[in-house]
Amino acid sequence: MMHLSRLSEELVLWMNPRFGFITIADRFCTGSSIMPQKKNPDVPELVRGKTGRINGHLVALLTLMKGQPLAYNKDNQEDKEPLFDTVDTLSQTLRVCAEMMGGVTAKPDAMRSAALQGYATATDLADYLVKKGLPFRDAHEAVALAVRHAEQRGCDLSDLGLDELKQFSDRIADDIYGALTLEGSLASRNHTGGTAPQQVEAAIARARKYLAG
If you classify domain 2-113 with CATH, what class do you get? Predict the structure, then answer.
């Protein structure tokens, strides 16, 4: 339930107009009682709420057991209600969530736009400098200054000219622009669990194989 609750929180955030990363099918949502334009993600919100109850059952069972000697005691008759409610709630929640995920539609353009904000490739610039032989501590400082300069200019790091970037380190060359793209940033982390497309595809394949049994 904890994992379902965390996933639900992501869905609630991503559906919020301030993010706008996804939509959830109407059958898993309701309208607002006062705002006609509002669409409430009911299922994710209910999953978060039910997780609180299930976590409460865990605490109740641990408290039930904490003062008992190492044998069966009549105290344990009190474990049935939280146990059975947990099993029923989890099985029903898994079924509903599985159906809901089929009704989630991603909005790639909104996701890409958000990924390009906040100087997301600043770490890539630091990694680039490290590969050029600069200690990370110095690279970190150089990139911080470059970001401050870009903020003052009101632009992204990739919009700075080569001469501007070289003010912060003479190790920067014209190959830096490949590292400052979103695609370059993703592709650079080509290791297990990384963001490179082939790694993501491999992770999906492993998950599908696991689910298939």
Answer: mainly alpha
